[in-house]
Amino acid sequence: MAKATYILCPGQGAQHPGMGKDFYEKFPAARAVFDRADAILQRKLSELCFHGPEERLNQTDISQPAIYVTSVACFAAATEAGLISPGQVTAYAGLSLGEYTALHLAGALDFEQGLRLVAARGRFMQEAAEASPGGMVAVLGADSQAVETLCAKASGGEVLVPANFNAPGQIVVSGTRGACERFGEAAQSAGFKAVPLAVAGAFHSPLMASAAERMRQLLAAATLAMPRTTVYSNVTARPHVDPPGIAAALVDQIVKPVLWEQTMQVLAADPEARWVELAPGRVLTGLLKKVNRRVAVETYATADALKGTG
Question: Is-catalytic flag, 71?
Answer without folding.
Answer: no
